[in-house]
Design brief:
130 residues; alpha/beta; three-stranded parallel beta sheet; 4 helices; 3 strands
Length: 130
């Protein structure tokens, strides 16, 4: 499974779109060309439940062995991405969480996911320190 943040740029991208979508498409395409099964939120039908990704990571029939994390500055503003990473670390069958550095700069640890609500601070701490 590939976890990515859309990274919408106001005034540049269409609604609910951003450069992360292109990066995710490119990564998934390259993996599939090499015979590696991979999926991401782009494959969830329009209006579909993006949370169905969580089932792929830790559901009863999950077969995810690696969670690829597309590292971009937008990643650290995406609570859904943080939730996916946490799910893989704490509940998933994924044996590896593998960051793929696609766009810099890398955000310092103390500045990652600054908009997390108080009830998710423990989750944030586990993801940042993983």
């Amino acid at each position: 499974v590939l976890s990515y943040a859309t990274g919408h740029r106001k005034g540049i991208d269409g609604e609910n779109a951003g450069p992360g979508m292109r990066l995710a498409r490119d990564v998934v395409t390259q993996l599939k060309l090499r015979g590696i099964d991979c999926m991401c939120g782009l494959q969830v039908p329009g209006g579909g439940r993006w949370k169905s990704i969580m089932d792929k990571i830790s559901g009863q029939h999950a077969q995810c062995r690696v969670l690829l994390v597309a590292v971009t500055p937008a990643l650290y503003l995406s609570n859904p991405c943080m939730d996916e990473i946490y799910c893989a670390i704490e509940h998933g069958r994924a044996t590896t969480v593998l960051p793929i550095f696609l766009e810099g700069p890398v955000v310092p640890r103390e500045e990652q996911w600054p908009n997390v609500k108080a009830d998710k601070q423990d989750k944030r701490t586990q993801v940042v320190n993983h």
